[in-house]
Design brief:
The structure is a single chain. By secondary structure, this protein is of the alpha+beta class. It contains eight helices and six strands. It has helices at residues 25-38, 63-66, 78-98, 118-131, 146-150, 160-167, 171-178, 184-190; strands spanning 8-14, 43-51, 54-61, 68-70, 76-77, 110-113. The strands form two sheets. It has a four-stranded antiparallel β-sheet with strand order 2-3-1-6. Strands 4-5 form a two-stranded antiparallel ribbon. The longest helix is centred in the middle third of the chain and has 21 residues, at 78-98.
Length: 193
C-alpha cells in the first residue's frame, strides 16, 4: 500500500467469506492490543470500529507511516507492515483459540484515500453498528472510537487534536453530527464491494 504523508485513509478488511473475525468478547480486546502495538506507532488514528466480521480504521499517514521497514523486491512501508503484523498475529491467536486453519481475513486489506470526504468517512465508521442493527444508539456500542469522543473516562486510541483540526469537531455538536445522514454516493464509496 502506498500512502502520502498527511493524507487520510479509510482502511478496512473483513473475514474470509464474510465469516466472523471476533468469536468471543475478549477477542475484541486482543485485536485492540495488537492494533495499539502495530498500527498506533505508525499512523495517527481518527476513528475505528470493530464489527463481528470486519473492521474499519480512519488514519492519517505520518512520516513514520512512509518509512521503509523491509527492503524486498518491493519496499514495504511501516504502516503496511503494521497492518500485516496486526492481521497475521491476530489470526494466529484466533486459529489457536478456535482450533482452526486457513485464512481468517480476506486476502487484501483495502484502503481508500479519504481526503475528499473525511467527515463522511469519520461518521460512517461510527454509524456501522447502528446501520447493522447491532445497537439502537451508537453510544451503546463498545467497540468503536465513538465512545472515546463522548466519554472523557474512556481509554483513547484516537487523536482528538487531529479530529478537531481537520473535522472542525466540537464536542457539544459531535453526537448530533454523528447521527447525520451521509449521502448515498459517499456510502457506496465507503462500503465493502
Amino acid at each position: 500500500m502506498q500512502f502520502s504523508e498527511g493524507s487520510f485513509y479509510h482502511i478496512f478488511n473483513r473475514g474470509n467469506n464474510k465469516q466472523k473475525i471476533f468469536f468471543q468478547e475478549r477477542n475484541y480486546n486482543y485485536f485492540l492490543e495488537k492494533f495499539k502495538k502495530y498500527i498506533l506507532p505508525n499512523a495517527s488514528i481518527l476513528a475505528w470500529c470493530l464489527m463481528p466480521n470486519h473492521f474499519h480504521f480512519l488514519v492519517q499517514a505520518t512520516k513514520r507511516s512512509l518509512e521503509t521497514v523491509k527492503h524486498t523486491p518491493v519496499n514495504i512501508n511501516a504502516l503496511t507492515e503494521g497492518i500485516r503484523l496486526l492481521l497475521s498475529t491476530y489470526s494466529a491467536g484466533i486459529q489457536k483459540q478456535e482450533s482452526r486453519k486457513g485464512s481468517l481475513f480476506q486476502q487484501k486489506t483495502k484502503f481508500k484515500n479519504a481526503d475528499e470526504y473525511l467527515s463522511s468517512a469519520f461518521h460512517y465508521i461510527h454509524q456501522n453498528p447502528l446501520r447493522a442493527g447491532l445497537v439502537s444508539r451508537m453510544e451503546d456500542y463498545p467497540w468503536s472510537s465513538f465512545r472515546e469522543y463522548i466519554l472523557d473516562s474512556h481509554p483513547r486510541i484516537s487523536d482528538f487534536s487531529i479530529a478537531e483540526q481537520y473535522l472542525d469537531l466540537r464536542k457539544e455538536q459531535f453526537v448530533e453530527d454523528s447521527y447525520g445522514v451521509i449521502p448515498d454516493d459517499i456510502v457506496k464509496m465507503l462500503e465493502f464491494r
